[in-house]
Amino acid sequence: MSNRISREELVKIYKIEVSFFDSLQNSGLLNTETEDEVTYLLYEELPAFEKYATWHYDLEVNIPGIEIISHLLSKMEALRSENLKLRQNLR
User: Is the pTM here over 0.70, yes or no?
Assistant: First the structure.
């Protein structure tokens, strides 16, 4: 069993535009693999893809907005982890 899904399958399943997927890929928000001229998304990237698709289609957030939100959430998580680590060191 493969641990990836093709871009074409994603477009059909999620009813998205290929250009949206390509924009996510080009902006570095998604890590993909290409084999025999077919682009694949690893299953481990699916939660991020679904989150971005929801933001874009349901909340009407554009690609630059998705990049900013994703970056800020990553920073928040890093700060949360650092905070936890510092609290543990104080004990």
Answer: yes
